[in-house]
Amino acid sequence: MNRNFDFVSDKRLEGQLDFIIEIDKLKNIARKSMVFDGSHFENDAEHSWTISVLAILLREYANFNVNIEKVIIMLLIHDIVEVYAGDTFLYSAKRSAAHIEEEKSAEKIFGFLEEDQKEYFLSLWKEFEERKTNEAKFATVFDRLEPLVQNYMTQGGTWKKYNVTYQMVIDKTSHIQEGSKEIWDFVKKLLQVCVERGYLAKEE
Amino acid sequence: MNRNFDFVSDKRLEGQLDFIIEIDKLKNIARKSMVFDGSHFENDAEHSWTISVLAILLREYANFNVNIEKVIIMLLIHDIVEVYAGDTFLYSAKRSAAHIEEEKSAEKIFGFLEEDQKEYFLSLWKEFEERKTNEAKFATVFDRLEPLVQNYMTQGGTWKKYNVTYQMVIDKTSHIQEGSKEIWDFVKKLLQVCVERGYLAKEE
């Protein structure tokens, strides 16, 4: 392992600093969808920022009380595992295989930290992935919502490019309603508009 | 004003959605320094993500108890005003003029939201700018720390490019100690190493 901060005598701090250097690689991991103005493919760091702000902005629409601090921290770190595992498209058949890779990746990346912090981040990441707690359900809303709005803003974006249909989108995003019925109502309307405007294909 | 979501009948939600589209412009606002691996100039969204994660990661080094939720939200939104005002280099003589521009910009960008949310974000942004509360002091640590580490990782980066000296850096960053004495100790060591390695000029 590369020691970037060999002049630091405190091993705990050195690990924390090396961790922040390592996760910076997210800025070079491109996602499938473009930022709202279509100027470039979004990277994982930009994505994590947007969905964290979305959670703060739209917290009033949660189906239940949530610990918003936990929701934000989950969202800020949820993609860190992609530093080694890379981004996998939501509609890819390789999503299950990807998950195994991500678990290995999580052990490795959070392993830069001492045991207490490693466990703290690992457990938050697992909680997010399992989508069982209120915080995880609400956090997931924004991870799903952002690309939908991106595809709307870019007149179909990845849907057109990868032949994604209305029903496929519904199947992969309907659990938004478990975190927020109001946001799910918005999404249904959004998808309807996308079909009407020809951004998203619907089988007759 | 462009109505991106004209099919949404709820004006509050429509404003929130337009706000998230508008602040996405931060992803096209380049900062002066490069990401840690030197691959590209960092944009404001990437920067906001990194310093938010840094605050979570290094919270144990705060000089006092902090409300970390507030610290993170401050950091996530602190640069949103640059959507209209642009980024100003820390060592620029135009920093005061820039601040007036930023206040106008803040009114405009948070004006997308209804009064309660506008006031919430405006007051958090002002609290951060004034650096008086514990949360603002601690949040500022990371806004200052990241470019220092970036310049270290890129063998001098913007310091060399703009002839920034050791004393100028000390003058502009020494208030890190108001938020975290331990991180300030690290920064002093880091700057010393930078001088020794020729990344940063020190007057004799």
Structural class call of chain A reads mainly alpha
**What overall geometry of chain A do the principal axes of the alpha carbons give?**
globular
Uncertain stretches of chain A: none
CATH C-level category of one domain in chain A: Mainly Alpha
Within CATH, the superfamily of one domain in chain A carries the name: Hypothetical protein af1432
Q: If strands are numbered along the chain, what order do they take across the biggest sheet of chain A?
A: 1-2
Q: Could you say what the CATH topology of one domain in chain A is called?
A: Hypothetical protein af1432
Would you list the SSEs of chain A in sequence order as H and E?
HEEHHHHHHHHHH
Largest interface: A-B, 47 and 46 residues
Strand segment count of chain A: 2
Distance between the termini of chain A: 55 Å
- Under the CATH scheme, the architecture of one domain in chain A is Orthogonal Bundle
Strand content of chain A: under 5%
Helix content of chain A: 55-70%
In angstroms, what is the radius of gyration of chain A?
18 Å
Largest beta sheet of chain A, briefly? Answer: 2 strands, antiparallel
Number of helices of chain A: 11
